[in-house]
Batch of 3 targets.
Target 1
Amino acid sequence: LLILTFGYVLIVLRLPGRMTRKSPVGAFAKFGKSFSFRFGGWINAVIPMIIVPYYSVIGGWVIKYFAVFLTGGGSATAADDYFTGFVGSVFQPLGWFLLFLGATAVIVLLGVEKGIEKVSKFMMPILVVLAIGISIYCLTLDGAMDGLAYYVQPHMSDFSVKTVLAAMGQLFYSMSLAMGIMVTYGSYMRKDTNLESSVRQIEIFDTVIAFLAGLMIIPAVFVFSGGDPKILQSGPSLMFVILPKVFESMSFAELLELHFSFLSFFAALTSSISLMETIVSIFQDKFHWTRKSSCIFVTVMSIVLGARPLLDLVLSPLSAGQI
C-alpha cells in the first residue's frame, strides 16, 4: 500500500534530474537558492556516501560466500563458528571488501552505456530467473506450505505503528528514495520517456523481486527451524549463518547454494553500482571533475570509511547470536 501511494509520489518527485539533467545537488539548486533546497540536494549526496562503504563490506561477505560455494566448500559454511571466524579475521574481510568495491568502481568507471547499462541488461534477467527457480524449489519442500502461509497470511494481532514505520523504512531503502539514485538516473532519461509508466514499472519490479526474495528464504527457514519466530526474524545472521545450514539439509545443496550466492552477488553489485554512480555524478557535476578522477576519489573515500567497521569486527568479534 505504501509503495502504491506514498512511494509512487516520492519516486515521481525524486526524478527532477530528468528536467534539469543534473545530479542531486545541481538538480535541487535549480529549484531555488534557499537553504532548504541546498540542504535537500546535499542530504541526497551524503546518504549514498555513507551507504557505499558499509554496503561494500557486506558485499565482500557475499562475494566470499559465492567463491566458497563455487569451489565446492559450501558445507564448511554451515559450521556454527564459520562466519564469526571469517569476519573476525584481519585480512580476509578486507580483501573481499576491496574486491567487491573494485568491481563496482570498474563498472562505474566505464560509464553509463558501456558499464552500468550493459551490466544491468545482463544481470537483471539472470537475477529474475534464478529468483523464480529457487523460489519454486523451496516451495516443493515438505512443510513449505506452512512456511508460505506464515509468510503471506496477515497477523493483525502483531500490527502496530512500529509495523508501518518498518514498512516505511523498507520502502525508502528498497526503492532507493532520498539517496539521490532516482535523481541521478532521472538525469540520464530521454525527454520522451513516459515518467508515470517508468515509475509503475519500478514499483512492479521492486515488489515482485521483494516477494520472490521472501519465497526463497521464509518457507525454507520455516521448515528448518520448525517455525521458530526468533530464527525467522534473526536479521543478517539469517543469510550468513542460518541459510547455509538450511541449504546443507536439502537435496542438491551445492547447486542451490551456488545459485543463491550468485543471485545475492548480482543483487548486491547492482545496488552498489547505483549508489556509487550517484556520488560520482555529484562530483562531476559540482566540481567538474572527470569520471575517472571522481571514481578514484570515491573509491578511496569508501576504502577509508569501510575499513572502520571491518576493524571494529576484528577488535570486538561478535558471536553468531549477536549478529
Note: The longest helix spans residues 35-70.
Target 2
Amino acid sequence: MTLADLSLKEYLAEQTKRIDQELDRLVPAEDTPPATIHKAMRYSLFAGGKRIRPILCLEAAHSAAGRDVEGTGTVACPLELIHTYSLIHDDL
C-alpha cells in the first residue's frame, strides 16, 4: 500500500508519525543538560498536534519534485518548532 492508497485521515496519521520521529531525532533528549529546559521543550512539542505545517512542507516538496525528496523531513521540522515556540511565547 502506498501513501496514495490511504484515506486523508490515514495519510495525515502516517505523516504525523514521520514528523514525530524526525522531531524526536532532532530535539535533545529530556536528560540532556540542561534537563529542565529539554524536558519542557519535549513536553510542549510532543503534547499532541496535527503537524499540518510540516506536512504541507513535505507536500510542497513532493509536488515540486514529483517524488519524496530525501531530507525534506529535516527541513519541515523547524516549521513545527517555530509554531510550538510561538504558541508558548504567546501564552507567556
Note: The two ends are 44 Å apart (CA to CA).
Target 3
Amino acid sequence: MTEPPLVSVVIPVHNEGRTLCACLASLFAQDHQPIELILINDGSTDDTAAILASYGERIQVLTTPGVGPSQGRNLGVARATGEYVAFTDGDCVCDPGWIRELLRGFDGHPEVVGVGGSQHTPPDDSPYGKQVGAFLRAFGFASEYIRAGEQKDIVEVKHNPTCNVLYRRMVFDRVAGFLKWLWPGEDVEFDRRVRRSGFRLMYNAGAIVHHHRPDTPAKFRRMMRRYGEAQGILVRMYGPFRTIQFMPVALVAGLTLAGTMALVPPLFLAVGLLAVAGGALLLRRRTPDTRTALACAAMLGPALWEWNRGYLMGLRQGAGQRSRATV
C-alpha cells in the first residue's frame, strides 16, 4: 500500500493573533496526514509570536523582520521537506478535507503542478467582512481570486490565489519562486511563469478555506487599491494578459458610449433603464437576499474608484519595478 505523501503547509503571518489559533486548529484537524506546518512570523507586533511559541515542536517557525508575504513563502518553501507544498493565510480556516481535496486534482495528471480551491466566508466573520465576501463573489471583481460559480468537477484554470493552493514541490526547482518585492499579485505572476513553462493548474471547489475579510470600509478600499496597483505593475511588466486588466479601457468606452447616447435622451433613458434592470437582476441572483444585493451595489463605486486609482499607480511604478524583477 502506497504511503500518503508528506505535505508542507507554508503560512506567512503578520499580526494575525485574532485568527491564528483557529487557522492552526483547522490544520491539525486535517484528515490527510502527514503534514508539516511552517509559519513565517514576519515582523508581528501583536501576540502572534507568543501564540506560535505555545505550539512548541508541533510547528516550525521562521522569524523575519518584515520581508513581506512573497519572500516569506520563498523562505518557507526552502525549509519544506514535503513532496507537496500548500499555502494558506493566517486569517483562513481550512475544512478538514482541504488537503485531501487539493491532492485529488493531481490524480492521473503528471503535468499538473498546482491545484487551488474555493473561498467561503467564515460564520464568525464581522458583519462588514461578510459584505466584502458577498461583494467579491457577486461581482467576481478580482477575476480568478474568487469564482462566482462553484464547479462540481475539477477544472483547469490559469491562476489560483495563495490563500488556497497546493503545488508539487519540484515546480519551485523548475520555476523560480515568487517575486520577493511584489505583493499582492505575486501569485498571479508566479502562475503565469508556471503555465508558460508548460505546466497545468487545476481548481477543485471542494477544497474549501473560510477566509476572513476586511472589517471596515477603509480596509476594504485599501485592499481594492492594492489589487489594482498589482495589476498595473504586471501590465507594465508583461502587457495585459488577464481580462480584469482591460477594465479601465472598458470603463472609458462605457462612459464614452453613455455620453454619446445622452445626446438622444429617449435612447439614453431606455438603454439606461435596461442596463440598471439587468444589472440589478444579475446582482440579486448572485447574492443571498435583497439587502445584501443593495449593500454590494453601494460598495461598487468605491471599489471601482480605488481599483482604478491603484491600477494607474501600478502602471507608473512598473517601469522602475521591471529592473527589480528578481526572486
Note: Residues 12 and 40 are 5 Å apart (CA to CA).
